[in-house]
Amino acid sequence: MPNEAATDQTADAPEAYDALLDRVRRWNTVDSAAGVLGWDQQVMMPEGGTPARSKQLSTLSSLRHDLLTADETGALLDALDDADLSDEQAAVVREIRREYERADAVPRELVEEISETSSEALQAWEEAKAEGDFEAFAPYLEKHVELKREYAEHVDPDRDPYAVLFEEYEPCLSMERTEAILDELREALVPMIDAIRASDVDLAKDTFEGTFPEADQEALVRDALELVGYDFDRGRLDVSSHPFTAGNQFDCRVTTRFDESDPLSAVGSTIHEFGHAQYALGLPQEHFATPLGDDRDLSVHESQSRLWENHVGRSRAFWELFLPTFTERFPETEDATVEDAYEAVNQVYEDNLIRVEADELTYHLHILVRFEIERDLIRGDLAVEDVPAVWNDKYEEYLGIRPDTDSEGCLQDIHWAHGNFGYFPTYSLGSVMAAQLFSAAEDDVADLEAKIADGEFADLREWLAENVHRHGSRYETNELVKRATGEDFAADAFLDYVEAKYGELYDL
């Protein structure tokens, strides 16, 4: 005779699952509304709006936290502990449980304080960056570090606090595996960059020198977005102090920025943000505000942006397609050849200080600097007041250059103003993943390079949608990559890719 308790639990499971989904939709919709306010704060809000916006975002943050951590959420998860669930349902419960357990450990008051501090720190960072004044931003950074240490302590007092915070952005890859991949990159890229700098090859670095008005650059990057297939019916392009993407499968917006002496930076950052937006817009609409309609976290998100930026936007095929558009917008570059453009977008810089303007190789040394500093801040091994000096020393050690101002040094990124400690490693993880995914796409999509040169991006978009986007958070990171490529997530494809590409460029 079957166990009556088990029978009752199984009978209640569909009702409990539906009730849990209803709750998760509510708190994720609150989060989505907060995202629109955050986008507005960085793009359109007048400077005087910060005090009210801080309170608005803090209230939404605490409301979401209350919905997530309510007793009813825990009771519904308990009711589903031994339920007979489909694979998709089990994945949804797994993701909700992970988020619930972390959030339930953190007091509501701390969540509010972190949110309010982020809003205040954002304006302070923008002003400090404009003035090159780290001391003006330091108190906000100090407070963020203290709050995030407290946050990590609540989540798991027995573990490395930085590893706990890293899981906010990449919950499926361990800190140990992440550090191992970063070590692989350091060991391979440092000697490769040294060899490139010692090379006698002289690339066409000056192809796009001159002054390129911002309005014309904006028209150019809109051309690029239309070319690769950005859906302007579900998005928009704006300008922000730091390029970012915000939104969901119904409305996903991109921003970029312009330097009138460097149009390639705007093209690259815009295509990068397109990759983020394409991922969000490709998530299943029917699963909006649930784990099956949410992205698989930042390593995968970054893989999409880095794939489009580097494997498409920096390819010969893309510049065969895009160079006529570029020269039409800027006739003074009409003598440039495709090879000139390819060399210009893939040069390895001797003296680049800015991460978002870095070349494809030294970019990862920029990430290592940030990773090591924020890790030491959170672990208590570095004082906030020492950040500028340590930053400058690491730049000299890793990149052979030293910032003259804090604006081009430790104030250049927005992440610490948001309190986003643990985010930076996902950029390098995403680049590694992008190479592995693109290699698989090349195997599966016939004549992919020729299609890019012809402006036929539909097959690549569809491959990514089928293998990455449509799954939402159903699979954890390694399983998602393995299903798409047939191999576990590893650095091999990335290292093969950069060795072949830069070996050819610099005759290594």
Word description of this protein:
It is built from 20 helices and three strands. With 508 residues, it is mainly α. It has two domains: 4-149; 175-506, Neurolysin, domain 3, CATH 1.10.1370.30. A three-stranded mixed sheet has the order 1-3-2, with helices on both faces. Helix 1 (4-43) packs antiparallel against helix 2. It is globular and about 70 Å long. The model is unreliable at 1-11 (pLDDT under 50).
Q: What can be said about this structure in brief?
A:
64% of the residues lie in helices and 2% in strands.
Distance between the termini: 74 Å
State the name of the first-level CATH class of the largest domain.
Answer: Mainly Alpha
The CATH topology of the largest domain: Neurolysin, domain 3
- The CATH level-2 architecture of the largest domain is identified as Orthogonal Bundle
Q: What percentage of residues falls in helices of 4 or more residues?
A: 55-70%
Shape descriptor: globular
* Percent in strands: under 5%
> How are the strands of the biggest sheet laid out side by side?
1-3-2
Give the number of domains.
2
How many strands, which pairing sense, and closed or not: the largest β-sheet?
3 strands, mixed
Tell me the total number of β-strands. Answer: 3
**Rg:** 23 Å
- The structural class is mainly alpha
Low-confidence stretches: 1-11
Calculate the mean pLDDT score and round it. 95
Multimerization status: single chain
